[in-house]
Amino acid sequence: MSEGTASLPWIVIRQDDNGNQYRVGRYATEAEAQKIADSFEDPGSKRLYVVERLGQNGDGGRG
Fold it and tell me: What are phi and psi of 25, to 5 degrees?
């Protein structure tokens, strides 16, 4: 795990209505990441914002 991954282990991912995913940003705490994700939410949009913790290999916790 790199130093950056250790200090900013929480990521916000945006998924659009076509299923494409993009990392929005990295954050120090889950609460901070969730606050950002919540601020982007738009009830009229099909975009989804998800908070995930980076895994040991920096893969967003998948695998």
Answer: -175, 170
